[in-house]
Structure formats: structure tokens, C-alpha cells
Amino acid sequence: MGFVFQDFNLLDTLTVGENITLSLTVNGLLPEEVMSRTEKIAATMGISHILDKFPQQISGGEKQRCAFARAVVTNPKLILADEPTGSLDSVASKNLLEVMENLNETLYSTILMVTHDALSASYAGRILFLKDGKVFNEIIKGEKSRQAFYHEILDVLSLLGGVS
Prior knowledge:
By secondary structure, the chain is α/β, with parallel strands linked by helices. It has two domains: 1-85 and 105-114, Rossmann fold; 116-164, no CATH class. Helix content is 46%, strand content 16%. The strands form two sheets. A three-stranded parallel sheet has the order 1-2-3. It has a two-stranded antiparallel ribbon with strand order 4-5. A hairpin with a 2-residue loop joins β4 and β5. The chain is elongated. The protein starts with a strand and ends with a helix. The mean pLDDT is 92.
């Protein structure tokens, strides 16, 4: 299982590369396998150039891509993402969502994402809307375009009374 938090939860005393490799090292993988996986996921996330930097030396978007890399480097079957775009600007959010969508398709992992953002939700295949702790509605993307799905999300949100 992998976790992606809104506020990154990176260890400040470790480099980006060390933050990513931590779970692999703890699980006893051979150093060659650790490096291979780290380099591969760093390239996928577009952060190969910052592996030797510390979290305080990189941008918020880079921190979140590092946090996502850390969550998926173990090839989990389930990824829990709590508002993963909440602290990112629109460009960094879009980039992260596209990477998440691509990794979902290539790793065949289930990503359970909590979000209040309709645009972020539009990258999902299935959405459950909660109201007062209960499922209010469910919609499935199917063959719809992301734009059409986004508008369907907005329609359901209007029934909920908007985003609070």
C-alpha cells in the first residue's frame, strides 16, 4: 500500500532520493534493485535531476512528485491519496494528475483519492460523492471524455449544494 499526503510528509534530513528509497531499503531489497527502481520512478516523475537535493531545496510540485514516487516505488496494489493536489498550483496539479493517471494504467494499481476539486476528480474512472458521511451519488466515467465527465461532476456537486 502506498500513501500520498497533501503536505508531502517528506523527511527533511533525507535527500529526495533517500526519501524515495527508504521503504525499499527497509524491506531489504538489494542495493542494485533499490537504485534501479528509484531511477526508474524518478525519471517517470520528472525528478531525476533533484535526487541529491533536500526537501527544503525544491518546489512544492517537486515535493509532491517525490511523495508520489515514494508511494509507488514499491509497486503497491492500492494507493491512498489525500488531497494530493491541494497544495499545488494549477500547472503542478495537472502534471501530477496526468502522472497518476498514467501510473494507474501501467501499474494496474487502484488509486483511492480524496478531493474536493472537480478537476482532480475528473481524472478518476469512478467517483463516490459523500454527504454527511454517507454515499450521496456515484458516477462512472466509462467512455466519456474528461471534459464531459468534469461537467457531470459539476452537475452532481450542484445537487449537493456546491463545494463547501
